[in-house]
Design brief:
about 110 residues, mainly beta, nine-stranded mixed β-sheet
Length: about 110
Amino acid sequence: MGRVALMRGPIVYTLESIDNSAPVRDLMLPENSRLVLEHRADLLGGVTVIKGQAWVSDPGNWANALYLIGGEIPTPQPVEFTAIPYFAKTNSGPVDMLVWMREAEAQPARR
């Protein structure tokens, strides 16, 4: 599993915690994810964002444990994400930010 960055022409995109419901560091982008462009006139005088679906592992019963004993590994769940141009980052104050997303090799198997 590698990492991928989202680009549109010469513009690099980033994910910020303020725009996403899941922790950005936990997101995994499937190679077949459908990405959609959306112009946001309300953001910095108008920028185009990228929206799509990623996978996120619900930490569930890991509860900050180093090892999971006697439980199941959480099944990744689909979640919508929004990426903004890197030059527009942190326009909303301090946030978690991510440029290089983990790449999911395939859609996680359902149990």
